[in-house]
Amino acid sequence: MSIEHSSSFVAVLDIQSKNVSRKPNYSRFSQQELHAWQPILTPGWVIAIFTFIGLVFIPIGVASLFASEQVVEVPLRYDDQCLPSLYKDDAMTYIKGNRISKTCTKKLTVKSKMKAPIYVYYQLSNFYQNHRHYVKSRDHKQLRSKADENDVGKCFPEDYTANGYLPVVPCGLAAWSLFNDTYRFSNNNKDLVINKKNIAWKSDQKAKFGSDVYPKNFQTGSLIGGARLNESIPLSEQEDLIVWMRTAALPTFRKLYGKIEVDLEANDEITVVIENNYNTYQFGGTKSVILSTTTWIGGKNDFLGIAYILIGGLSLVYSLVFLLMYLMKPRPLGDPRYLTWNKNSKCLN
User: InterPro entries, alphabetically (predicted)?
Assistant: First the structure.
């Protein structure tokens, strides 16, 4: 009985396998029968495309360069100038000394008229904010919601206080290293007010930093990394922190410190009082403060205009080369005589 049963079972499977088709359901998509556009790049089209790119890109590049030249910048590197002569060979003692005055006064001369708003930037070099460990040393949930203030899993070593019980808000190395140099400007013995509102991205304020999250246990350890935060102001309004925590892609970067909302005339002498607190001496970095205007392309950026002009110029050169080749050595489009195997067969014969 068992032999008969097994044989009948095999017979049923054979019948089912014959009836079941492996052919997929027909569709124009699966059978690749949809209409498709397959452009043929004839010499005329190639020459026209390169010419069009050149004629469009070169004017854009010239306009960008012209706009960049209209930007007025007044830079001042101060990390070396604000180092007292007594500590020229021992910068670490100076920057770490709590009893050593860090106040430094410098002069800036405005070369051309600067129309408001005038943006104040600080610039750091040799500071790798894009380091993988530095970028990950924060907790986005903690920054967004008070309910997650204990979520410090990615913030070591700046996750808990020294006793190991209380979470640090905001936690992580990115917040801990917040820039803490300060600047005061005056012109003709009149203070220039620096507006520090609306210097951060609105999207960052609304989506990344919670309005119900307040700093707690921040910079309370034995090793202070940078600036302290006001514990009565929510993170969504701590714009210096928000600007700092938008990490830079390159080791030399600028970040917005504030805005001066009055015009400065040519040859004005600006007095800058600097509190030189931030330690860049340990890793060989530099610090600068920069006053800058803007145009429709933003700040000063010659690279953008040069890139457009270079690409446009190369496109025109290519179009001219292809045109000369087409005129000097024309050939019919799709002529099979130029196929490699046809040429080889002729050589063999």
Answer: CDC50/LEM3_fam
pTM of the model: 0.77
**CA 59 – CA 298 distance, rounded (Å):** 18
**Angle formed by the axes of helices 43-69 and 302-328, to 10°?**
160
121, 234, 250, 227: which is closest to 177 by C-alpha? 227
Q: At 234, list the tokens.
A: 């929510």
Cα gap 249→75, rounded to integer Å: 21
Amino acid in the structure at residue 129: Q
Q: Phi and psi of 60, rounded to 5°? A: -65, -40
Tokens of 328: 């000097």
pLDDT in tens, 140-188: 888 888 888 888 878 888 888 877 678 888 888 998 999 999 999 999 8
Query: Strand, coil or helix: what is 301?
Result: coil
Residues making up the chain, counted from first to last: 349
Of 270, 258, 226, nearest in space to 245 by CA: 226
Type and span of the H or E element at 194: strand 194-195
* pLDDT tens digits for range 275-327: 999 999 988 899 999 999 998 888 888 999 999 999 999 999 999 999 998 88
For 147, half-sphere exposure in the C-beta direction (CA atoms, 13 angstrom radius) is 0
Q: Which residue has the tokens 């102001």?
A: 233
Q: How far apart are CA 298 and CA 303, in angstroms?
A: 13
- Distance separating the N- and C-terminal Cα atoms of the chain: 75
Tokens of 215: 């700093």
Residue that is written with structure tokens 């005589």 in the block:
337
Tell me the residue type at 289: V
